[in-house]
Amino acid sequence: MDKRVPMMVIERNHEIEPQLGNATFQYYQARFAIPSSELGSNNSIYCSFNARGVHFIMLGAFVDYNAT
């Protein structure tokens, strides 16, 4: 990928790797510097941002759901 082209990545099932303590996506989060806190999210698996008049929603397929 050209370093001059901005890109945003999101996790998928290929990013689930065996890790100590049953933590998930630790390697993914270490590889990709997702600016989640700057985008108003407390998790790098989901966030949203605006760019050139378009609202992008980055929603990973493995976001934990809790109805409470």
TrEMBL record:
Keywords: Signal. InterPro entries: Metallo-depent_PP-like (IPR029052), PAPs-like (IPR039331). The keyword NADP does not apply. GO terms for molecular function: acid phosphatase activity. The keyword Signal applies. It comes from the Eukaryota. This is Uncharacterized protein. It comes from Nymphaea colorata.
